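Hi there,

I know you've been waiting on this one. I reran it after we fixed the sequence typo, so this is the corrected version. Both the input and the resulting structure follow.
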Amino acid sequence: MSTARIPSRTEPATGPRDRCREAVLRHRTELIELARDLHAHPEPAFAEHRSAAELTRLLSEHDFTVRAPVAGLDTAFTAERGSGEFVVGICAEYDALPEIGHACGHNLIAAAAVGAALALAEVADELGITVRVIGTPAEETGGGKVLMLERGEFDGLWMAMMVHPGPDDICAPRSLAINDLEVRYTGREAHAAAAPELGVNAGDALTVAQVAIGLLRQHLEPAQQVHGIVTAGGAAPNIVPAHTAATYNLRAAGSASLERLENRIRACFEAGATATGCTHEVTQVSPVYAELATDERLSETYRAAVTELGRRPIGRAEAQRRIIGSTDMGNVTRRLPAIHPMIAVDCGDAVNHQAEFAAACASASGDRAVLDGAIAMAWTAITAATEPDHRSALAAARNRPAGKHSEAGAEHGLRAAAERNTSGGVP
């Protein structure tokens, strides 16, 4: 991977691309400070109050019109500049993971989004662009983008984009659809030694379900995945547990496969209840996240931009062999032309959701990712807005009808994540 430094500008900025690059370099100190500040103050899903406030403060200082909160979400916002019909959406994520903070690099996503917006603001009126920063909370769990999409905050966009840090530069990454399920078992307490026969063991119910899921793995379809954690396992070893719970991520290549997987996992949950005499309840933790449907032309435009900046993104075939996890940006890509490229940081052998990766997201390499990502997104938008056939294609493709993955389970996901803030399964 390459994270080449952006050279200092040596000639006066002339065209829109040059002026955008110059704007990012001019704002580099505050962009890097923003990324480092968010990193130092991680906040979990739906609780990103300080992070959202810092983003909206900075955008307001640069004459963006800020709306906050929006979509019924306390930590969601939008910020706009320009008045052109070509409306570019730039998604900012800023939620962190429990215990390991910004180990998915959302601090860099947010700072790059602000940088791209500041750059495009320099040329918005000239090119007939409106730039809209969309502050999207709760990507790790809760599906902020899905909620905002269904509540109209992406309406009117011609295109949307964001950059996500990772070990490599990937212009059109592959993600999986995901559904988060929580199962709760209810039995009856009893003294585990004096009267175990009077108990109904919710711990055993969960164990049976876990064994059933483990045995099922041999028969999963290609790209199907299931993984989970126990969130409640009992109070003490000398009490037959009456209440247990677990949360599972179900992933698949597409919605049909995901639905088949869900049916089989629900049967495993039911097996635990049947075997032990417990009752059980299954609830959906977050909205269903769709798999990414990257806009190919926007992706190739972004590829040209980051290559010009000295990066070396992996090839298209290799990109399709890798799975980056899951993201609620997938739902956005199925409503309008959008991209979700990965931008490389120097993280050694570490990968996302590791403490070592979190450290890399507050490093010189992370700083460069912010600046490169901001410039590349600005250049992508300029090309899309100024090439007549590209602009026409985006006009024709925007605002596609909503697909199957919409707001199912969203309200429960909002409540559950706000109450617990413990799940870190996405992407």
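Quick highlight: DSSP finds 15 helices and twelve strands in the chain.

Best,
R. S.
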